[in-house]
Design goal:
Largest sheet: 2 strands, antiparallel
CATH architecture: Orthogonal Bundle
Distance between the termini: 39 Å
Radius of gyration: 24 Å
Shape: globular
Order of helices and strands: HHHHHHHEEHHHHHHHH
Number of domains: 1
Strand order of the largest sheet: 1-2
Number of helices: 15
Structural class: mainly alpha
CATH topology: ABC transporter involved in vitamin B12 uptake, BtuC
Length: 347
């Protein structure tokens, strides 16, 4: 068995970024008056900021081999809770936002505890906790929207989403900052290496002394923290509390996280790969939208891309394992030479 060729390695590592550039070029040629414009680029960066953040949040548990299906429900609860505190309770918006972000981290830690200590599969556990969050959202809003009064929301709060910096939407810089932080944590700190070892082989991680349960809880807490930040940003964007918002973001987030594990560092979830995957989705959805696609084109695109992402992620992981096994094989034993034969005769 031989390691993968340099060409295959380059395609696996940089194929998705090249696809992003190709899609942008094709849509720019087909739609020269609307697609390659500054306004369209700004719109893509702004509209995809929340899905990108959620995808980065979903990436953290995936590194440990777990899945957090509660992120969509958590997003809905977080943004409704921000609006409830600011509009109905009169809480200063910085305090409300901080409380929701910290609450998101706490809920994520509870998810991790349920998965690790109750020994429930992460898909089932987080689907259950997500349903509870959805129930809390309905209880908090009584099924209706939270609408600000005539005075509206503070401009400094809505500016979290509406403001611009260097001519670009501020949410794009939130995503960039999250990517940098997550890249440093996963790729440069022992904490991230421990998470990768847990995701690769939990038993081996436990044998070498890594507290697998604790670090898995940390991973879910990190995911919940990102969900809380996303909920604050969603509240600033929509400026109303809508109890039905949240689940629409679940599928794109997992598509981005899983598809991201097939690029940059093929076979393992990584922050840069997730950013590239979200870029592919953003360019593709913007392009088909401007081409006049029907409303069902978006879920079709997301669902098809998810299936492709899961398949490619599995293939990349298997190829990574085969390459590692090939390099770890012991060299073949050499047959006895003449000196060995003579030694045998002498004995």
């Amino acid at each position: 068995m031989t390691p993968q060729s340099p060409r295959g390695h380059l395609i696996g590592t940089y194929g998705l970024p090249a696809l992003t550039a190709l899609l942008f070029l094709v849509f720019s040629i087909v739609l020269p008056d609307t697609f390659p414009t500054r306004e369209n680029v700004s719109s893509i960066l702004s509209n995809q900021s929340i899905p990108a953040l959620l995808a980065l949040g979903a990436t953290i548990p995936i590194v440990t081999g777990k899945f957090d299906l509660s992120i969509g429900y958590g997003l809905g609860l977080a943004h409704v809770l921000v609006m409830h505190l600011v509009v109905e309770e009169g809480t200063p918006w910085p305090v409300a936002c901080l409380a929701v972000v910290l609450g998101g981290a706490l809920v994520g830690a509870l998810n991790g505890a349920v998965v690790e200590f109750a020994r429930i599969d992460s898909l089932i556990a987080t689907l259950g906790t997500g349903s509870i969050m959805y129930a809390l959202t309905g209880w908090l809003t009584d099924g209706s929207r939270i609408v600000p009064g005539p005075q509206g929301l503070p401009a400094s709060f809505t500016g979290l989403y509406d403001a611009r910096f260097l001519g670009l939407p501020v949410p794009a810089f939130y995503v960039l900052a999250a990517v940098v932080v997550l890249w440093v944590v996963l790729e440069r700190l022992p904490f991230g290496r421990y998470l990768y070892v847990i995701g690769s082989n939990p038993r081996a991680a436990s044998i070498i002394g890594i507290p697998t349960h604790r670090y898995s809880v940390y991973a879910f807490a990190g995911s919940g923290l990102v969900v809380g930040v996303s909920g604050v940003l969603l509240a600033a964007q929509q400026q109303i509390g809508n109890p039905s918002v949240g689940l629409d973001y679940l599928l794109p987030a997992f598509v981005g996280a899983l598809l991201g594990s097939t690029t940059i560092r093929p076979g393992r979830a990584n922050a840069l790969g997730t950013l590239v995957a979200v870029s592919v989705l953003a360019v593709g959805l913007a392009g088909i939208g401007q081409l006049g696609a029907q409303f069902w084109a978006t879920p079709l695109f997301n669902g098809g891309t998810l299936l492709m992402a899961v398949g490619l992620a599995g293939y990349a992981a298997r190829r990574r394992l085969r390459a590692r096994a090939a390099t770890d094989l012991p060299p073949p034993e050499e047959p006895p030479g003449p000196s060995g034969a003579q030694a045998a005769e002498s004995r």
